[in-house]
Amino acid sequence: MPIIVVDKLTKEYQRLKRTAGLAGSIRSLFSREYETILAVNDVSFHVEEGEVVGYIGANGAGKSSTIKMLVGILVPTSGLITVRGLVPHENRIENAKKMGVVFGQRTQLWWDIPVSESLNLMRHMFKIPEKRFNENIALFGNILDLREFIDTPVRQLSLGQRMRADICAALLHNPDILYLDEPTIGLDVVAKERIREFIKSVNRARGTTVILTTHDMSDIEKLCSRVMVIDKGSIVYDGQLQQLKEKYGTEETLTIETDGGSINDKDLYKLGIQDVNRQGNRYIFRYDKRKVNSSSLIQFVLEHCQIRDFDVQQAEIEEVIRRLYLSMADHRQG
Ligand SMILES: Nc1ncnc2c1ncn2[C@@H]1O[C@H](COP(=O)(O)OP(=O)(O)OP(=O)(O)O)[C@@H](O)[C@H]1O
Ligand SMILES: [Mg+2]
Predict the structure, then answer these.
(1) How far apart are the CA of 24 and the centre of ligand 2, in A?
(2) Residue 15 pLDDT
(3) Domains of the chain, each with CATH number or no CATH
(4) pTM for this predicted structure
(5) Minimum-distance ligand 1 atom for the alpha carbon of 215
(6) Which residue, among 113, 118, 200, has the nearest Cα to 152 in the 3D structure?
(7) Which of 67, 123, 149, 268 sits in a 20 to 30 Å window from 138, CA-based?
(8) How many Å lie between the centroid of ligand 2 and the Cα of residue 39?
(9) Which pLDDT does position 334 carry in this prediction?
(10) Greatest CA span in the chain, whole angstroms?
(11) What pLDDT does residue 180 have?
(12) What's the CA gap between 191 and 197, in Å, rounded?
């Protein structure tokens, strides 16, 4: 049984239409015209217990709207969500007991009181047994290093500290689902890495199911085997990250260092190489790995030069996603 079932989920927002200029502003004072925004459009998916799913897409694609409906703070326009058999917005409290959520853009903690008091309030709200609470504070506090700012009001925390406090708060009641909406936004590389490690360890140790939205493809690469891509409200890809890479990450780069000698560019293009960049004795070849085999390319170079060193690089995940987004844009135009 999947832990989360989403079936034909749709969310529309009504937004006040604003017309440009003074005349427009005056007009909208008298007649309020609304426009409909289709933020989530007929989305269906299942999530199995213990999965870590990356939910990605451009700005405004509908990621946060989906998360808010899963959490139960937003009511779907149509379609059905069940989390462990319950409809989140109809069973908000029941649902909240079993899930944790972090919105990277906005803290869930109380702004003016120390972190420790916020966590204590959570303890009462969720009726967390004292023993479990203390164990979790000790464990998370340690891994997330909360001690240095546990007595500081949230408003005085740096973004990275605040995010750690939020993540700790989301996990205090041992939820079995964790929703993370941009948990690494604005953090430095060290802080990002730390949060990724933490999420990974929670998933491994407790089997917590994780759904994560992000614009940082390293988050996806480090944490998720499955990704769902949403574009203008619709899911356009749902599958293994590896397969996505195979489909859109067909570009390979081979860097070769030679001991002199020279290669004729024309011969290279005949082999199917798309681009050659030569810097002294160093060649950088770019090609489609479905058309060119790196070992036959090396073989070819060896016929003309001595090779001192070489390195083959696959397309970066950023590149894979960039291509996917581009192909979606082409698709829409075509
Ligand atoms: N409360 C709201 N009222 C009206 N429109 C909204 C509201 N919230 C979101 N939208 C619109 O719905 C669409 C989807 O927004 P959403 O926040 O779900 O996107 P997102 O994928 O999370 O984007 P981002 O990557 O920028 O966080 C956007 O066009 C947005 O402007
Ligand atoms: Mg968002």
Answers:
(1) 30
(2) 87
(3) 4-8+47-246 (3.40.50.300), 250-314 (3.30.70)
(4) 0.84
(5) 25
(6) 113
(7) 67
(8) 11
(9) 61
(10) 80
(11) 97
(12) 10
